[in-house]
Amino acid sequence: MLKIENLVVNYGYVNALRGVSFEVNKGEIITLIGANGAGKTTTLKSISNLVKKESGTIYFKGQDITDVPAHKIVELGMCHVPEGRLIFPELTVKDNLIAGTFGNTKLDKAKKEELLEEMYNWFPRLKERISQEGGTLSGGEQQMLAIARGLMMDPDIIMLDEPSLGLAPIIVEEIFDLILKIRENGKTVLLIEQNATMALSIADRGYVMENGEITITGTGKELLNNEKVQAAYLGS
Length: 236
What we know:
The protein is α/β, with parallel strands linked by helices.
């Protein structure tokens, strides 16, 4: 579904990505793990064409999207839920969700209503707060709203950047259960996550990033059992 070949991104004199290549197959949960500054967020922003690429090629569903504008990439069926949630704090929960449909011009009114009901079933806490302003929600609820807003465009792939950041452990478990549910409902997931143990435990495959390069690859289970990964990221 998604293929990245030799991606290079520079921020001034800093080499943020140095020839990154990986792929995501339909129906997989793929995770990128690594320390802060390893290049994970830059990778997602490059795929979404939110940062300038020095070189490299990105294919989505067989189409070269390397230079396709960000809003057109969304229309092709790709959703990017950025780090920091970035919900609309003054809009209600419902209006935030409706805003998520704007990226998909093919959705008719009936489909939007169907997606709303689906999100309320998946995220019952959001349904309880349907008329509440987004900015008044707890951190965990805001993260759920950000993910639900992304799903409202009915994407083929959803890219999640640090969905558990700053959340209490019990809420983190809820978020990861939701990610599994998203995949069970036919979506493909590309996940960036500081909580490497949780990410690898649900991932089909993972890629370890260091200094803008992918250094280790394997199934989620293989990386959980890899001594280098354990020493660097799993607290073992």
